[in-house]
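Cont'd.
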Amino acid sequence: MAPIGKLIGPTANFRNYKARIVAKHLGVDIETTPQFKLGIDNKTPEYLVKYPVGKVPAFESADGFSLTDSSVIAYYIASKGGNNSSLLGQTPEETAEILQFIMFAESDFTPAALGTFSPLLGSMPMIKPAHQQAEQQLDRFLDALNTLVVDRTFLVGERLTIADVVVTCDLIMSYKFYLEEAGRTQYHNLTRYFKAMVAQPAFKAVLGDVELCKERLKPAAPAVDETEEEAAPAANPKSKLDLLPKPKMIFDEWKRFYLNNTAKPDAMNWLWKHFDDEGYSFWKVEYKYNNELTSCFMTNNLVAGVCNRLERAQKYAFGCLLTLGKDNDNMIWGYFIVRGLEVPEEIIESADYESFDWSPADYKDPKTRAEIEDCFAGEGPALPRECNGGRIFK
Amino acid sequence: MAPIGTLIGPTVNTRNYKVRIVAKYLGVNIETTPQFELGVDNKTPEYMAKYPAGMAPAFETADGFSLTQSAAIAYYIASKNASNTDFLGQTSEETGEILQFILLSETDYAPAMTGTIYPLLGFMPLIKPARQQAEQQLVRFLGVLNALLVGRTFLVGERLTIADVFVACNLLLVYRTYLEEADRKQYRNLTRYFKTMVAQPAFKAVIGDVEL
């Protein structure tokens, strides 16, 4: 039998499996490209002329029709499949439910799965807050699917449809890399469903045996230079700032005093009495894109995020970032005390550093001093504008 | 004509518009839920019991059939309206192409668009490397769409299809908040396409005037 067309893309790939499983189920022949190298063969000028987005897999039928998107290709092959039309549903309601599952799998579930796995596999940079969010979404969706299949053998109707093909293929990575035995038990309905699907002849023929996760994939450890033991009592310092001579003001004491007393006058008096300008420095911090800010509520959210992402600098910094102004006309403004006389590496390397101007502040100048006091108090005439929120970074 | 069902979800919302535009275009009556509060009404135990992922919009017909995912809902409404055969494609190939655009718009373009614009609106934390990557993708997609539309009025075939509704609606935020006048000229085919789409009666009836 002549092949229905050619599926272009890497073959050991969850997207590639979808069309092949459908073809197998229908008894239809489809060509594949086992030598295809992802990231190389879909970036050639020839490929991009045909498939400008560079998406993989692509499909080319014998009569020159071409298509991208793994689920759409699977759908198309099913629609050409002739007599076995139940793959696409037997009523408009079933077809709509099939599309519902495909859209859920492709626009909600898979981005969460890829956002979780790609940084662990190294195919995407690891950005911790993004990874955490993806993982939360993945758990949420696994839970939803688990609930949905509690009393179903197939996702739609009483027979295999391409909803099952798409969802099962999209679940492969989760079952291979993520769900250890405890996780599989936790989502036991979904696990039953997944195992039943991959055991079907068409799936088995394409996937072979699916080995379930023994140990959850962990982030690739960065290559570490094995360091020798230091003769000094401390091990290798984690920060250059730990190497500085012991300062006359203890940061934690300041932080404790600030939190347990009113800012003006008590905490500020303590600060001016104890401040050690050889061990610490003041910096004025201003957001570069104030014209892009909208409601104060949103700006406060942004500030909260910035402070969360400064976690690494927690031992070496203290500051207040305020939202000053009103809705659609506000700014982020504040002051920081840092360990040392320069902005610490831990702050410079944070995701948000580029969005702010850090300028050295002279606390001996009366105007600056007044600003610092009102900043740490969250109110006062020295503030350039009215304070409508903000965060203390401690 | 009796409504065929209720679209449950916030009404000032792109996903909601898509379904309503399809219904309007096909002359199908659907009910909506203008009081729906996103983040509140889709997290109630009752809602989650029916729709475990808590996603909105959802759709319920008079005889108890329910559905989620705006694309599936819109497609369903169109499929129950046999009179307009172009709208979902006349051939398997056209339907394939239509679905290709819907999936492209929803799974590739939309995350790039929200990843670029949402952090500026405060709907998402601003994580610079993630936003930069999203913006690169967005620019790439806008270029591709612009090139694709050079000789075309509609995305598939010679008439409006459900693909146009989805792609044009997903461009709303980009045209409202991101593309300035110079950019609009740069993507001139895309801008022509977008303006033509939102000027169509069904779009205008649901979205009103679009301020660029």
